[in-house]
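Appendix B. Chain record.
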Amino acid sequence: MPGWQALRAELHDKGLEIVTIGLDAGGADAVRPWIEAANPEHPSLIDETHIVDELFGVTNVPNAVWIDEHGMIVRPAEPANIEHSPLQDMEIPDGLPERIHDMLVEVKEIRDDSEAYRAAIVDWVENGADSPYALSPDAVVARSLPRGRDESEAAACFELGRHLHDAGDNDGAVKWWREAHRLDPNNWTYKRQGWSLASTAPGEPSDLMQGPTDLYEGNWLDDVKASGGGANYYPSFQP
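Structure tokens predicted for this chain:
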């Protein structure tokens, strides 16, 4: 979040507003400490129901949607990194547990379009509708992910699981979340939510390793490897 705060401070007088949204069905208390620690000057919200997934097609984090001053979407949901991750430059120390070592290997391979993406935002703020990065309505629709029957059923399964989780029926929630993962294997927000809640001890911060557990067939590391490795985790930035 610090990078987004800095970008807002740089461009807010020119009309840019940043709204950050934390997706977490674990409840507001799971996200609030991170927001309070960042102490953002911009609006920072908590989405316990993953409604932005449904409305905007978010399938991973961080994703961003660009909305102009007229309320029109000019770029649909897409990977939204504006800072180079220091993890990608670190030397992996010897002696780490195998899974942590392998996870860091994949993290170092994750695509880094942060410089280009930040520059695109700056260009849009400077040039508005004349920016080459501001897409037409037809282009926005063409780039938006289609939502076929499987994706729609996955969304319904995820919602059922969330209601059961809220009601304290964790076994029921896992059943429906597993089905959501099966139906829409490219939706990382569904996967990461289920994995994190399953592998996070009560009262502890969210488990960033996200598995493995006996409750789910997949986990972050194994699913990233199965998809072709960290280089395929985010699609490339398309101007």
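Further analysis of this model is presented in Appendix C.
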